[in-house]
Write a structure and sequence with these properties.
Length: about 400
């Protein structure tokens, strides 16, 4: 498919100062779509920026469609910091006649990029675009994990039209379903109904309160390492650090914590797409949020170019294997520790008739803390959640 039909080029005049600058900035090394009819060559590219000017399904945040070019203005100015980055900016996806037309375009573009093993980085628009991102994997019949950094779950009402606060329920109820696991990082309890918390636990999804996550940010790394898709709602960041959102609130992650989380995402060998949503320039004092988002994207790319390629499915000779028996349980837990990165995984038993479908999901990223927990005869929550999905809830 020729995906160029879905895009409109950027306006060169908006980036003249950056492009004419002699410094080694991102704008100098990115192959961007500036001229009509001169769509960038995708061969041998690693990462593709995709702007989306779509906010018709935004809840109380109209104006987030303006986001892409504001973010680019700051991103293009940043120093590369990478060794020969191969990044392409495809421009902005054309706004469809109906919002569903935009979803269709996004899904098709991401599908083609995934086939080429290029990581799409979606900038702009509202978080309902996560559903369009998911649909791309659905078209490839790939069972995936989604991580959402958000101060709530966005379950909404599945019977209502898809919007930025109901995209998750729309994914859950869709059949056939290709969502294996959903992880929320940073929810704030006073924004979430207890029935939604109960539902997430019933579905064996992983949910982590803001306070718990911030108490040890390194524990976010295995949460993120298990994801194929990351959806980052800018409202997860506190208003003082990211005012550019109509739904911004006083509490949330600090800017540097947000950068660390997305760098973890970049480091993950498994993650193949990421989206940054809900940024609204109309509320952005001194364009502070645009600048922060540009740095977050920079950190994601920095993580990508520091990947270790050490997922245990590839070559287990690069790992140290540990067996831990828990006397009060029937299961022996198998741990793998990478010799390259010292990262940890747990192996979860999977029924033989499901091993093909869930080949990528029975090795669960974990931390040294999980190994210590098992050694103390305490079953790690991550292991138990995955075991329930593989053997009971599948």
């Amino acid at each position: 498919m020729d995906i160029s039909i879905f895009f409109e080029p950027l306006k060169t005049i908006d980036y003249e100062n950056i492009l004419n600058n002699n410094s080694k900035s991102m704008g100098k090394v990115i192959d961007a779509y500036f001229d009509e009819g001169a769509f960038p060559d995708l061969e041998n590219k690693h990462i593709a920026l995709i702007g989306v000017k779509e906010d018709r399904s935004a809840v109380n945040n109209e104006g987030c469609a303006l986001a892409p070019d504001y973010i680019r203005k700051y991103f293009y100015k940043l120093s590369t910091g990478f060794c020969s980055p191969k990044i392409v900016d495809l421009g902005n996806i054309k706004r469809g006649f109906e919002v569903e037309d935009t979803y269709y375009a996004i899904s098709n573009v991401i599908t083609e990029l995934l086939k080429l093993k290029i990581i799409p980085v979606i900038i702009g628009g509202s978080q309902d675009l996560t559903k369009a991102n998911y649909t791309a994997y659905e078209s490839l019949s790939q069972v995936i994990n989604i991580v959402s950094v958000d101060n709530q779950f966005d379950l909404g009402n599945p019977e209502e039209r898809l919007n930025s606060q109901s995209y998750l329920s729309n994914i859950i109820v869709q059949q056939p379903n290709f969502l294996f696991n959903f992880t929320n990082i940073g929810y704030q309890t006073y924004f979430v109904e207890q029935e939604y918390i109960d539902l997430m636990k019933k579905l064996y999804f992983d949910i982590y309160r803001l306070g718990l996550v911030r108490s040890d940010l390194n524990e976010v790394e295995p949460m993120v390492r298990n994801a194929d898709v990351m959806s980052f709602d800018i409202s997860a960041i506190r208003q003082s650090d990211a005012p550019g959102n109509c739904n911004a609130t006083p509490n949330g992650f600090y800017g540097e914590e947000a950068c660390q989380i997305v760098r973890f995402a970049g480091l993950s060998d498994k993650l193949t797409s990421i989206g940054f949503y809900e940024y609204n320039p109309l509320y952005d004092k001194s364009e502070q949020t645009a600048h922060l988002l540009a740095q977050m994207i920079w950190y994601f790319i920095d993580g990508y170019y520091n990947r270790k390629q050490d997922f245990p499915l590839t070559n287990k000779s690069d790992f140290i294997k540990y067996l831990v028996s828990i006397s009060d349980h029937k299961h022996e837990i198998v741990f793998f520790k990478s010799k390259r990165s010292e990262r940890w995984w747990m192996e979860v038993p999977c029924p033989a008739d499901r091993i093909t479908k869930y080949e990528r999901h029975h090795l669960i990223p974990c931390s040294y803390a999980d190994y210590k927990s098992a050694c103390n005869e305490d079953m790690p929550d991550r292991w138990w959640q995955a075991y329930q999905k593989l053997t009971v809830n599948s």
